[in-house]
Amino acid sequence: MEVTINLNGTPETHEVEPRLLLVHFIREKAGLRGTHWGCDTSNCGTCVVWLDGKPVKSCTVLAAMADGRSVRTVEGLEQGGQLDPVQEGFMECHGLQCGFCTPGMLMTARALLDDNPDPTETEIREAISGQLCRCTGYENIVRSVRWAAEKEQGGPVTESETPAEVTA
Amino acid sequence: MQVPAPFAYERATSVEHAIALLGELGPEARVVAGGHSLIPMMKLRLARPDALVDINGLGAELAQIRVDGDELVIGSLARHADLLGSAVAGEHFPIFHDAEKVIADPVVRNFGTVGGSLCQADPAEDLAAVFAALDGVATVRGPAGVRQVRVRELHVGPYETVLAPDELMLELRVAIRPGGGSAYEKVERRVGDYPVAAAGAVIWLDGDTVRDVGIGLTAVGAAHFAAPEAEAALRGQPATEESFRAAAQLAAEHCNPSADQRGPVDYKRHLAAELTTRALRRAAARARGQEA
Ligand SMILES: Cc1cc2nc3c(=O)[nH]c(=O)nc-3n(C[C@H](O)[C@H](O)[C@H](O)COP(=O)(O)OP(=O)(O)OC[C@H]3O[C@@H](n4cnc5c(N)ncnc54)[C@H](O)[C@@H]3O)c2cc1C
Ligand code: FES
Ligand code: FES
Protein backbone atom coordinates (compact mmCIF):
# COMPACT_ATOMS: atom_id res chain seq x y z
CA MET A 1 0.00 0.00 0.00
CA GLU A 2 1.05 3.59 -0.51
CA VAL A 3 1.62 5.62 2.65
CA THR A 4 2.22 9.37 2.80
CA ILE A 5 3.36 10.85 6.07
CA ASN A 6 4.12 14.50 6.64
CA LEU A 7 7.51 14.01 8.23
CA ASN A 8 8.92 17.11 9.91
CA GLY A 9 6.94 19.22 7.46
CA THR A 10 7.88 17.32 4.29
CA PRO A 11 5.58 14.72 2.70
CA GLU A 12 7.22 11.28 2.46
CA THR A 13 5.46 8.77 0.20
CA HIS A 14 6.50 5.12 0.05
CA GLU A 15 5.06 1.82 -1.05
CA VAL A 16 5.01 -0.35 2.10
CA GLU A 17 3.59 -3.54 3.54
CA PRO A 18 0.74 -2.89 6.00
CA ARG A 19 2.81 -4.58 8.71
CA LEU A 20 5.61 -2.01 8.51
CA LEU A 21 6.01 -0.27 11.85
CA LEU A 22 6.21 3.50 11.96
CA VAL A 23 9.72 3.41 13.44
CA HIS A 24 10.98 1.44 10.42
CA PHE A 25 9.19 3.75 7.98
CA ILE A 26 11.05 6.64 9.57
CA ARG A 27 14.44 4.92 9.71
CA GLU A 28 14.48 2.69 6.63
CA LYS A 29 12.09 4.31 4.15
CA ALA A 30 12.64 7.97 4.96
CA GLY A 31 16.25 7.43 6.05
CA LEU A 32 15.98 9.47 9.25
CA ARG A 33 18.09 7.51 11.71
CA GLY A 34 17.75 9.91 14.62
CA THR A 35 14.78 7.97 15.96
CA HIS A 36 16.12 4.89 17.70
CA TRP A 37 14.57 1.53 18.09
CA GLY A 38 15.40 -0.60 21.11
CA CYS A 39 13.21 -2.92 23.12
CA ASP A 40 10.53 -3.48 20.49
CA THR A 41 8.13 -4.18 23.39
CA SER A 42 6.68 -0.69 23.96
CA ASN A 43 8.70 -0.25 27.14
CA CYS A 44 11.92 1.71 26.55
CA GLY A 45 10.60 4.78 24.70
CA THR A 46 13.69 5.45 22.60
CA CYS A 47 11.38 5.27 19.55
CA VAL A 48 9.12 8.13 20.74
CA VAL A 49 8.06 10.55 17.98
CA TRP A 50 5.13 12.93 17.76
CA LEU A 51 2.06 11.76 15.88
CA ASP A 52 -0.24 14.70 15.21
CA GLY A 53 1.50 16.59 18.02
CA LYS A 54 1.43 13.85 20.70
CA PRO A 55 4.38 11.66 21.74
CA VAL A 56 3.81 8.00 20.84
CA LYS A 57 5.99 4.88 20.81
CA SER A 58 6.60 4.41 17.08
CA CYS A 59 7.47 0.71 17.47
CA THR A 60 3.85 0.16 18.46
CA VAL A 61 2.14 2.08 15.65
CA LEU A 62 1.85 0.90 12.04
CA ALA A 63 3.12 3.24 9.33
CA ALA A 64 -0.29 2.67 7.74
CA MET A 65 -1.97 4.14 10.83
CA ALA A 66 0.04 7.33 10.33
CA ASP A 67 -0.92 7.67 6.65
CA GLY A 68 -2.09 11.23 6.00
CA ARG A 69 -0.91 12.39 9.41
CA SER A 70 2.01 14.46 10.70
CA VAL A 71 5.03 12.98 12.42
CA ARG A 72 7.80 14.98 14.08
CA THR A 73 11.08 13.32 14.92
CA VAL A 74 14.23 14.45 16.67
CA GLU A 75 15.52 15.80 13.33
CA GLY A 76 12.56 18.18 13.38
CA LEU A 77 13.56 19.84 16.66
CA GLU A 78 16.24 22.10 15.21
CA GLN A 79 14.69 25.14 13.53
CA GLY A 80 16.60 27.24 10.99
CA GLY A 81 19.99 26.00 12.15
CA GLN A 82 19.16 26.75 15.79
CA LEU A 83 19.00 23.85 18.24
CA ASP A 84 15.87 23.55 20.34
CA PRO A 85 16.39 24.61 23.98
CA VAL A 86 15.85 21.01 25.12
CA GLN A 87 18.73 19.93 22.89
CA GLU A 88 20.86 22.73 24.34
CA GLY A 89 19.84 21.68 27.83
CA PHE A 90 20.93 18.08 27.25
CA MET A 91 24.32 19.38 26.06
CA GLU A 92 24.72 21.82 28.95
CA CYS A 93 23.69 19.47 31.73
CA HIS A 94 25.13 16.22 30.33
CA GLY A 95 21.65 14.77 29.81
CA LEU A 96 23.17 11.86 27.91
CA GLN A 97 26.08 9.48 27.98
CA CYS A 98 25.66 6.83 25.26
CA GLY A 99 22.79 8.77 23.70
CA PHE A 100 20.64 5.77 22.95
CA CYS A 101 17.58 6.98 24.87
CA THR A 102 18.08 10.61 23.89
CA PRO A 103 15.85 11.01 20.79
CA GLY A 104 12.82 9.74 22.72
CA MET A 105 13.69 11.78 25.80
CA LEU A 106 14.02 14.95 23.72
CA MET A 107 10.66 14.49 22.01
CA THR A 108 8.86 13.86 25.29
CA ALA A 109 10.64 16.79 26.94
CA ARG A 110 9.66 19.15 24.10
CA ALA A 111 6.00 18.04 24.38
CA LEU A 112 6.09 18.49 28.16
CA LEU A 113 7.42 22.04 27.94
CA ASP A 114 4.88 23.00 25.27
CA ASP A 115 2.17 21.84 27.64
CA ASN A 116 3.68 22.92 30.93
CA PRO A 117 6.44 25.54 30.48
CA ASP A 118 7.59 25.42 34.11
CA PRO A 119 7.43 21.78 35.24
CA THR A 120 8.58 20.60 38.65
CA GLU A 121 11.11 17.82 38.99
CA THR A 122 8.26 15.42 39.82
CA GLU A 123 6.36 16.43 36.70
CA ILE A 124 9.45 15.87 34.55
CA ARG A 125 10.04 12.45 36.09
CA GLU A 126 6.39 11.54 35.51
CA ALA A 127 6.55 12.68 31.86
CA ILE A 128 9.56 10.46 31.09
CA SER A 129 8.40 7.55 33.26
CA GLY A 130 7.69 5.39 30.22
CA GLN A 131 11.25 5.76 28.96
CA LEU A 132 14.40 4.01 30.07
CA CYS A 133 17.89 5.44 30.39
CA ARG A 134 20.62 3.03 31.37
CA CYS A 135 23.37 5.63 31.71
CA THR A 136 22.42 8.85 33.44
CA GLY A 137 20.33 7.69 36.37
CA TYR A 138 17.82 10.30 35.08
CA GLU A 139 19.21 13.01 37.34
CA ASN A 140 20.93 14.87 34.51
CA ILE A 141 17.97 14.42 32.20
CA VAL A 142 15.75 16.15 34.74
CA ARG A 143 18.31 18.97 35.08
CA SER A 144 18.51 19.29 31.29
CA VAL A 145 14.77 19.73 30.97
CA ARG A 146 14.74 22.26 33.82
CA TRP A 147 17.56 24.12 32.09
CA ALA A 148 15.47 24.33 28.89
CA ALA A 149 12.41 25.44 30.86
CA GLU A 150 14.38 28.21 32.55
CA LYS A 151 15.92 29.36 29.30
CA GLU A 152 12.51 29.56 27.67
CA GLN A 153 11.11 31.42 30.64
CA GLY A 154 14.01 33.86 30.47
CA GLY A 155 14.95 32.89 34.02
CA PRO A 156 18.30 31.85 35.49
CA VAL A 157 20.18 29.33 33.45
CA THR A 158 21.90 27.01 35.86
CA GLU A 159 24.98 25.80 33.99
CA SER A 160 27.27 27.92 31.82
CA GLU A 161 26.20 31.34 30.55
CA THR A 162 26.62 30.48 26.89
CA PRO A 163 24.28 27.57 26.33
CA ALA A 164 24.63 26.98 22.60
CA GLU A 165 28.37 26.39 22.64
CA VAL A 166 29.87 23.00 23.10
CA THR A 167 33.17 22.97 24.89
CA ALA A 168 35.50 20.48 23.33
CA MET B 1 13.45 -7.29 14.80
CA GLN B 2 9.88 -8.08 15.81
CA VAL B 3 7.38 -7.54 13.03
CA PRO B 4 3.82 -8.84 12.73
CA ALA B 5 2.96 -11.54 10.17
CA PRO B 6 1.42 -10.16 6.95
CA PHE B 7 -2.18 -8.96 7.01
CA ALA B 8 -4.52 -6.82 4.94
CA TYR B 9 -5.21 -3.30 6.16
CA GLU B 10 -8.37 -1.27 5.73
CA ARG B 11 -9.25 2.11 7.12
CA ALA B 12 -12.84 2.67 8.26
CA THR B 13 -14.43 5.99 7.35
CA SER B 14 -17.56 5.56 9.51
CA VAL B 15 -19.02 3.18 12.08
CA GLU B 16 -21.18 1.56 9.37
CA HIS B 17 -18.15 1.18 7.15
CA ALA B 18 -16.14 -0.46 9.96
CA ILE B 19 -18.88 -3.01 10.59
CA ALA B 20 -19.28 -3.71 6.86
CA LEU B 21 -15.51 -4.20 6.52
CA LEU B 22 -15.43 -6.61 9.47
CA GLY B 23 -18.26 -8.58 7.80
CA GLU B 24 -16.52 -8.68 4.41
CA LEU B 25 -13.09 -9.58 5.79
CA GLY B 26 -14.43 -12.44 7.90
CA PRO B 27 -13.91 -13.72 11.44
CA GLU B 28 -10.11 -13.47 11.37
CA ALA B 29 -10.22 -9.69 10.92
CA ARG B 30 -9.70 -7.45 13.96
CA VAL B 31 -10.39 -3.87 14.82
CA VAL B 32 -7.27 -1.86 15.59
CA ALA B 33 -7.76 1.15 17.88
CA GLY B 34 -4.57 2.28 19.67
CA GLY B 35 -2.96 -1.02 18.76
CA HIS B 36 -1.00 -0.94 22.01
CA SER B 37 -2.23 -4.37 23.04
CA LEU B 38 -2.87 -5.88 19.61
CA ILE B 39 0.39 -4.92 17.85
CA PRO B 40 2.63 -6.30 20.63
CA MET B 41 0.61 -9.55 20.52
CA MET B 42 0.93 -9.67 16.72
CA LYS B 43 4.70 -9.20 16.96
CA LEU B 44 4.84 -12.21 19.26
CA ARG B 45 2.40 -14.21 17.07
CA LEU B 46 0.06 -14.46 20.08
CA ALA B 47 -2.47 -12.89 17.72
CA ARG B 48 -2.43 -13.43 13.98
CA PRO B 49 -5.35 -11.63 12.34
CA ASP B 50 -5.76 -11.82 8.53
CA ALA B 51 -6.82 -8.22 8.35
CA LEU B 52 -7.01 -5.07 10.46
CA VAL B 53 -9.77 -2.50 10.33
CA ASP B 54 -8.33 0.79 11.56
CA ILE B 55 -10.91 2.89 13.41
CA ASN B 56 -8.58 5.76 14.35
CA GLY B 57 -10.31 8.03 11.82
CA LEU B 58 -13.61 7.78 13.74
CA GLY B 59 -12.63 10.12 16.58
CA ALA B 60 -15.45 12.57 15.91
CA GLU B 61 -17.99 9.78 16.37
CA LEU B 62 -16.27 7.62 18.96
CA ALA B 63 -13.91 9.66 21.13
CA GLN B 64 -16.29 11.97 23.01
CA ILE B 65 -16.55 12.11 26.81
CA ARG B 66 -19.78 13.82 27.87
CA VAL B 67 -22.79 13.79 30.17
CA ASP B 68 -26.03 12.64 28.57
CA GLY B 69 -29.01 13.07 30.94
CA ASP B 70 -28.01 11.21 34.11
CA GLU B 71 -25.25 9.18 32.49
CA LEU B 72 -21.57 9.75 31.85
CA VAL B 73 -20.76 8.61 28.31
CA ILE B 74 -17.21 7.68 27.29
CA GLY B 75 -16.52 6.94 23.63
CA SER B 76 -14.65 3.70 22.97
CA LEU B 77 -11.94 5.58 21.06
CA ALA B 78 -11.25 8.02 23.92
CA ARG B 79 -7.53 7.69 24.72
CA HIS B 80 -6.39 7.01 28.28
CA ALA B 81 -4.96 10.55 28.27
CA ASP B 82 -8.40 11.96 27.30
CA LEU B 83 -10.05 10.22 30.24
CA LEU B 84 -7.29 11.37 32.62
CA GLY B 85 -7.72 14.91 31.33
CA SER B 86 -11.52 14.90 31.41
CA ALA B 87 -12.83 17.25 34.10
CA VAL B 88 -16.38 15.95 33.74
CA ALA B 89 -15.31 12.31 34.23
CA GLY B 90 -13.20 13.25 37.27
CA GLU B 91 -15.95 15.35 38.81
CA HIS B 92 -18.49 12.53 38.79
CA PHE B 93 -16.14 9.56 39.20
CA PRO B 94 -12.69 10.30 40.68
CA ILE B 95 -12.01 6.56 40.29
CA PHE B 96 -11.25 7.27 36.60
CA HIS B 97 -8.49 9.71 37.42
CA ASP B 98 -7.09 7.47 40.20
CA ALA B 99 -6.85 4.59 37.72
CA GLU B 100 -5.68 6.51 34.67
CA LYS B 101 -2.77 8.03 36.58
CA VAL B 102 -1.37 4.52 37.03
CA ILE B 103 -2.33 2.84 33.74
CA ALA B 104 0.78 2.30 31.62
CA ASP B 105 2.90 5.47 31.17
CA PRO B 106 2.10 8.93 29.79
CA VAL B 107 3.25 8.10 26.25
CA VAL B 108 1.26 4.85 26.04
CA ARG B 109 -1.73 6.72 27.46
CA ASN B 110 -1.60 9.09 24.47
CA PHE B 111 -2.60 6.30 22.11
CA GLY B 112 -4.19 3.36 24.00
CA THR B 113 -7.98 3.60 24.13
CA VAL B 114 -10.71 2.88 26.66
CA GLY B 115 -12.60 0.54 24.30
CA GLY B 116 -9.41 -1.28 23.36
CA SER B 117 -8.67 -1.88 27.04
CA LEU B 118 -12.05 -3.45 27.66
CA CYS B 119 -12.10 -5.47 24.43
CA GLN B 120 -8.59 -6.76 25.04
CA ALA B 121 -9.96 -8.56 28.13
CA ASP B 122 -6.52 -8.95 29.65
CA PRO B 123 -7.03 -10.56 33.10
CA ALA B 124 -4.99 -7.69 34.60
CA GLU B 125 -6.63 -4.77 32.73
CA ASP B 126 -7.25 -1.85 35.09
CA LEU B 127 -10.30 -0.36 33.38
CA ALA B 128 -12.14 -3.70 33.51
CA ALA B 129 -12.17 -3.40 37.32
CA VAL B 130 -13.12 0.28 37.18
CA PHE B 131 -16.12 -0.31 34.93
CA ALA B 132 -17.10 -3.43 36.89
CA ALA B 133 -17.17 -1.36 40.10
CA LEU B 134 -19.25 1.32 38.37
CA ASP B 135 -21.49 -1.31 36.72
CA GLY B 136 -20.94 0.41 33.37
CA VAL B 137 -22.75 -0.64 30.22
CA ALA B 138 -21.16 -0.89 26.78
CA THR B 139 -23.05 0.04 23.63
CA VAL B 140 -22.09 -2.41 20.93
CA ARG B 141 -23.06 -2.33 17.28
CA GLY B 142 -23.06 -5.09 14.67
CA PRO B 143 -24.79 -5.75 11.34
CA ALA B 144 -28.07 -6.50 13.14
CA GLY B 145 -28.05 -3.21 15.07
CA VAL B 146 -27.17 -1.89 18.49
CA ARG B 147 -27.19 -3.78 21.80
CA GLN B 148 -26.20 -3.00 25.38
CA VAL B 149 -23.77 -5.22 27.27
CA ARG B 150 -23.05 -4.78 30.98
CA VAL B 151 -19.29 -4.70 31.49
CA ARG B 152 -19.91 -7.35 34.17
CA GLU B 153 -21.11 -9.62 31.35
CA LEU B 154 -18.59 -8.54 28.70
CA HIS B 155 -15.67 -10.80 29.55
CA VAL B 156 -16.03 -14.54 29.13
CA GLY B 157 -12.42 -15.46 29.85
CA PRO B 158 -8.86 -14.27 29.37
CA TYR B 159 -8.65 -12.26 26.12
CA GLU B 160 -12.24 -13.17 25.26
CA THR B 161 -15.41 -11.08 25.18
CA VAL B 162 -19.03 -11.68 24.15
CA LEU B 163 -18.54 -9.43 21.11
CA ALA B 164 -19.01 -11.12 17.74
CA PRO B 165 -16.12 -10.64 15.27
CA ASP B 166 -18.18 -8.09 13.32
CA GLU B 167 -19.33 -6.08 16.34
CA LEU B 168 -17.83 -2.73 17.30
CA MET B 169 -17.87 -1.23 20.79
CA LEU B 170 -19.15 2.32 20.43
CA GLU B 171 -19.24 3.78 23.93
CA LEU B 172 -19.53 3.11 27.65
CA ARG B 173 -22.26 4.48 29.89
CA VAL B 174 -22.19 4.91 33.65
CA ALA B 175 -25.24 6.05 35.65
CA ILE B 176 -24.65 9.20 37.72
CA ARG B 177 -26.41 8.94 41.09
CA PRO B 178 -26.16 11.53 43.87
CA GLY B 179 -24.43 10.86 47.20
CA GLY B 180 -21.65 8.73 45.78
CA GLY B 181 -17.87 8.55 46.02
CA SER B 182 -15.37 6.35 44.20
CA ALA B 183 -11.68 5.40 44.33
CA TYR B 184 -9.07 3.05 42.82
CA GLU B 185 -6.05 1.47 44.52
CA LYS B 186 -3.31 -0.39 42.66
CA VAL B 187 -0.05 -2.07 43.51
CA GLU B 188 2.40 -2.42 40.62
CA ARG B 189 5.98 -3.65 40.49
CA ARG B 190 7.23 -0.55 38.69
CA VAL B 191 5.81 2.51 36.97
CA GLY B 192 3.82 1.66 33.86
CA ASP B 193 3.26 -1.98 34.64
CA TYR B 194 0.05 -3.93 34.85
CA PRO B 195 -1.11 -4.40 38.45
CA VAL B 196 0.03 -7.11 40.82
CA ALA B 197 -3.48 -6.50 42.15
CA ALA B 198 -5.90 -3.58 42.13
CA ALA B 199 -9.32 -2.73 43.51
CA GLY B 200 -11.91 -0.12 42.66
CA ALA B 201 -14.89 0.91 44.78
CA VAL B 202 -17.90 3.15 44.40
CA ILE B 203 -20.13 3.77 47.38
CA TRP B 204 -23.38 5.65 48.00
CA LEU B 205 -24.19 6.70 51.56
CA ASP B 206 -27.43 7.55 53.39
CA GLY B 207 -25.95 9.36 56.36
CA ASP B 208 -23.63 6.74 57.80
CA THR B 209 -25.25 3.77 56.14
CA VAL B 210 -24.09 2.15 52.92
CA ARG B 211 -27.03 2.55 50.54
CA ASP B 212 -25.27 0.87 47.62
CA VAL B 213 -21.77 -0.21 46.69
CA GLY B 214 -19.82 -1.54 43.71
CA ILE B 215 -16.47 -3.33 44.00
CA GLY B 216 -14.16 -4.23 41.10
CA LEU B 217 -10.96 -6.28 41.27
CA THR B 218 -8.33 -7.01 38.66
CA ALA B 219 -5.35 -9.35 38.27
CA VAL B 220 -6.64 -11.62 41.06
CA GLY B 221 -8.98 -13.91 39.10
CA ALA B 222 -12.24 -12.35 40.31
CA ALA B 223 -15.12 -13.58 38.13
CA HIS B 224 -16.12 -10.73 35.78
CA PHE B 225 -13.70 -8.43 37.68
CA ALA B 226 -16.40 -7.97 40.39
CA ALA B 227 -17.00 -8.89 44.03
CA PRO B 228 -20.79 -9.43 44.33
CA GLU B 229 -20.57 -11.31 47.67
CA ALA B 230 -18.72 -8.43 49.31
CA GLU B 231 -21.14 -5.90 47.82
CA ALA B 232 -24.18 -7.82 49.13
CA ALA B 233 -22.63 -8.08 52.60
CA LEU B 234 -21.92 -4.34 52.76
CA ARG B 235 -25.28 -2.97 51.56
CA GLY B 236 -27.29 -1.57 54.48
CA GLN B 237 -24.32 -1.78 56.88
CA PRO B 238 -22.75 1.17 58.70
CA ALA B 239 -19.98 2.78 56.64
CA THR B 240 -17.22 1.96 59.11
CA GLU B 241 -13.69 0.58 58.97
CA GLU B 242 -14.96 -2.72 60.46
CA SER B 243 -17.59 -3.28 57.78
CA PHE B 244 -15.13 -2.30 55.04
CA ARG B 245 -12.59 -4.82 56.34
CA ALA B 246 -15.19 -7.57 56.60
CA ALA B 247 -16.43 -6.95 53.06
CA ALA B 248 -12.86 -6.79 51.72
CA GLN B 249 -12.11 -10.11 53.38
CA LEU B 250 -15.07 -11.65 51.56
CA ALA B 251 -13.88 -10.16 48.27
CA ALA B 252 -10.44 -11.71 48.82
CA GLU B 253 -11.92 -15.11 49.68
CA HIS B 254 -13.99 -15.19 46.50
CA CYS B 255 -11.22 -14.27 44.10
CA ASN B 256 -8.89 -16.80 42.52
CA PRO B 257 -5.40 -15.40 41.98
CA SER B 258 -2.69 -17.42 40.25
CA ALA B 259 1.00 -17.31 41.01
CA ASP B 260 3.17 -15.69 38.34
CA GLN B 261 6.19 -13.42 38.03
CA ARG B 262 4.18 -10.68 39.75
CA GLY B 263 3.76 -12.64 42.96
CA PRO B 264 2.47 -15.71 44.80
CA VAL B 265 -1.19 -16.48 45.51
CA ASP B 266 -1.27 -15.57 49.20
CA TYR B 267 0.37 -12.18 48.55
CA LYS B 268 -2.17 -11.35 45.83
CA ARG B 269 -5.05 -12.42 48.06
CA HIS B 270 -3.66 -10.25 50.84
CA LEU B 271 -3.50 -7.33 48.39
CA ALA B 272 -7.07 -7.97 47.24
CA ALA B 273 -8.31 -7.52 50.83
CA GLU B 274 -6.06 -4.58 51.67
CA LEU B 275 -6.67 -2.66 48.43
CA THR B 276 -10.43 -3.23 48.62
CA THR B 277 -10.41 -1.80 52.16
CA ARG B 278 -8.42 1.23 51.07
CA ALA B 279 -10.63 1.85 48.03
CA LEU B 280 -13.80 1.61 50.14
CA ARG B 281 -12.33 3.93 52.78
CA ARG B 282 -11.35 6.57 50.23
CA ALA B 283 -14.61 6.23 48.26
CA ALA B 284 -16.58 6.79 51.50
CA ALA B 285 -14.46 9.82 52.43
CA ARG B 286 -15.20 11.27 49.01
CA ALA B 287 -18.92 10.52 49.33
CA ARG B 288 -18.83 12.53 52.58
CA GLY B 289 -17.00 15.35 50.83
CA GLN B 290 -13.97 14.85 53.09
CA GLU B 291 -11.47 14.16 50.33
CA ALA B 292 -11.06 15.34 46.76
C1 LIG C 1 3.96 -0.58 27.91
C2 LIG C 1 2.49 -0.81 28.18
C3 LIG C 1 2.03 -0.78 29.49
C4 LIG C 1 0.68 -1.00 29.77
N1 LIG C 1 0.26 -0.94 31.07
C5 LIG C 1 -1.05 -1.13 31.34
C6 LIG C 1 -1.53 -1.05 32.68
O1 LIG C 1 -0.80 -0.75 33.61
N2 LIG C 1 -2.84 -1.30 32.91
C7 LIG C 1 -3.70 -1.59 31.90
O2 LIG C 1 -4.87 -1.79 32.16
N3 LIG C 1 -3.29 -1.65 30.62
C8 LIG C 1 -1.99 -1.42 30.33
N4 LIG C 1 -1.57 -1.48 29.05
C9 LIG C 1 -2.53 -1.79 28.02
C10 LIG C 1 -3.14 -0.56 27.46
O3 LIG C 1 -4.02 0.00 28.39
C11 LIG C 1 -3.86 -1.10 26.27
O4 LIG C 1 -2.88 -1.37 25.29
C12 LIG C 1 -4.74 -0.27 25.58
O5 LIG C 1 -5.54 0.55 26.31
C13 LIG C 1 -5.63 -1.13 24.70
O6 LIG C 1 -6.21 -0.23 23.90
P1 LIG C 1 -5.80 -0.07 22.40
O7 LIG C 1 -6.61 1.03 21.89
O8 LIG C 1 -4.34 0.01 22.28
O9 LIG C 1 -6.34 -1.47 21.85
P2 LIG C 1 -5.92 -2.33 20.57
O10 LIG C 1 -4.59 -2.93 20.81
O11 LIG C 1 -6.13 -1.54 19.35
O12 LIG C 1 -7.02 -3.43 20.66
C14 LIG C 1 -7.10 -4.39 21.69
C15 LIG C 1 -8.20 -5.40 21.37
O13 LIG C 1 -9.47 -4.79 21.41
C16 LIG C 1 -10.13 -4.85 20.15
N5 LIG C 1 -10.80 -3.55 20.00
C17 LIG C 1 -10.24 -2.32 20.15
N6 LIG C 1 -11.18 -1.36 20.04
C18 LIG C 1 -12.35 -2.00 19.79
C19 LIG C 1 -13.69 -1.54 19.58
N7 LIG C 1 -14.02 -0.23 19.60
N8 LIG C 1 -14.66 -2.47 19.35
C20 LIG C 1 -14.33 -3.79 19.32
N9 LIG C 1 -13.10 -4.27 19.53
C21 LIG C 1 -12.11 -3.39 19.76
C22 LIG C 1 -9.05 -5.13 19.15
O14 LIG C 1 -9.57 -5.83 18.03
C23 LIG C 1 -8.09 -5.98 19.96
O15 LIG C 1 -8.54 -7.31 19.99
C24 LIG C 1 -0.22 -1.27 28.72
C25 LIG C 1 0.23 -1.30 27.40
C26 LIG C 1 1.57 -1.07 27.12
C27 LIG C 1 2.04 -1.11 25.69
S1 FES D 1 11.61 0.44 20.80
FE1 FES D 1 9.67 1.35 21.06
S2 FES D 1 9.42 1.42 23.19
FE2 FES D 1 11.36 0.43 22.97
S1 FES E 1 22.21 8.02 27.72
FE1 FES E 1 22.59 5.91 27.53
S2 FES E 1 20.59 5.09 27.76
FE2 FES E 1 20.28 7.15 28.24
From TrEMBL, chain A:
<dbReference type="InterPro" id="IPR012675">
    <property type="entry name" value="Beta-grasp_dom_sf"/>
</dbReference>
<comment type="pathway">
    <text>Alkaloid degradation; nicotine degradation.</text>
</comment>
<keyword id="KW-0560">Oxidoreductase</keyword>
<keyword id="KW-0479">Metal-binding</keyword>
<keyword id="KW-0411">Iron-sulfur</keyword>
<protein>
    <submittedName>
        <fullName>Carbon-monoxide dehydrogenase small subunit</fullName>
    </submittedName>
</protein>
<dbReference type="InterPro" id="IPR036010">
    <property type="entry name" value="2Fe-2S_ferredoxin-like_sf"/>
</dbReference>
<keyword id="KW-0408">Iron</keyword>
<dbReference type="InterPro" id="IPR002888">
    <property type="entry name" value="2Fe-2S-bd"/>
</dbReference>
<dbReference type="InterPro" id="IPR001041">
    <property type="entry name" value="2Fe-2S_ferredoxin-type"/>
</dbReference>
<dbReference type="InterPro" id="IPR036884">
    <property type="entry name" value="2Fe-2S-bd_dom_sf"/>
</dbReference>
<dbReference type="Pfam" id="PF00111">
    <property type="entry name" value="Fer2"/>
</dbReference>
<dbReference type="GO" id="GO:0046872">
    <property type="term" value="F:metal ion binding"/>
</dbReference>
<feature type="domain" description="2Fe-2S ferredoxin-type">
    <location>
        <begin position="1"/>
        <end position="77"/>
    </location>
</feature>
<dbReference type="GO" id="GO:0016491">
    <property type="term" value="F:oxidoreductase activity"/>
</dbReference>
<keyword id="KW-0001">2Fe-2S</keyword>
<dbReference type="Pfam" id="PF01799">
    <property type="entry name" value="Fer2_2"/>
</dbReference>
<dbReference type="InterPro" id="IPR051452">
    <property type="entry name" value="Diverse_Oxidoreductases"/>
</dbReference>
<dbReference type="GO" id="GO:0051537">
    <property type="term" value="F:2 iron, 2 sulfur cluster binding"/>
</dbReference>
<feature type="region of interest" description="Disordered">
    <location>
        <begin position="149"/>
        <end position="168"/>
    </location>
</feature>
From TrEMBL, chain B:
<dbReference type="InterPro" id="IPR005107">
    <property type="entry name" value="CO_DH_flav_C"/>
</dbReference>
<protein>
    <submittedName>
        <fullName>Carbon-monoxide dehydrogenase medium subunit</fullName>
    </submittedName>
</protein>
<keyword id="KW-0285">Flavoprotein</keyword>
<dbReference type="Pfam" id="PF00941">
    <property type="entry name" value="FAD_binding_5"/>
</dbReference>
<dbReference type="InterPro" id="IPR016169">
    <property type="entry name" value="FAD-bd_PCMH_sub2"/>
</dbReference>
<keyword id="KW-0560">Oxidoreductase</keyword>
<dbReference type="InterPro" id="IPR036318">
    <property type="entry name" value="FAD-bd_PCMH-like_sf"/>
</dbReference>
<keyword id="KW-0274">FAD</keyword>
<dbReference type="Pfam" id="PF03450">
    <property type="entry name" value="CO_deh_flav_C"/>
</dbReference>
<dbReference type="GO" id="GO:0071949">
    <property type="term" value="F:FAD binding"/>
</dbReference>
<dbReference type="InterPro" id="IPR051312">
    <property type="entry name" value="Diverse_Substr_Oxidored"/>
</dbReference>
<feature type="domain" description="FAD-binding PCMH-type">
    <location>
        <begin position="2"/>
        <end position="179"/>
    </location>
</feature>
<dbReference type="InterPro" id="IPR036683">
    <property type="entry name" value="CO_DH_flav_C_dom_sf"/>
</dbReference>
<dbReference type="InterPro" id="IPR016167">
    <property type="entry name" value="FAD-bd_PCMH_sub1"/>
</dbReference>
<dbReference type="GO" id="GO:0016491">
    <property type="term" value="F:oxidoreductase activity"/>
</dbReference>
<dbReference type="InterPro" id="IPR016166">
    <property type="entry name" value="FAD-bd_PCMH"/>
</dbReference>
<dbReference type="InterPro" id="IPR002346">
    <property type="entry name" value="Mopterin_DH_FAD-bd"/>
</dbReference>
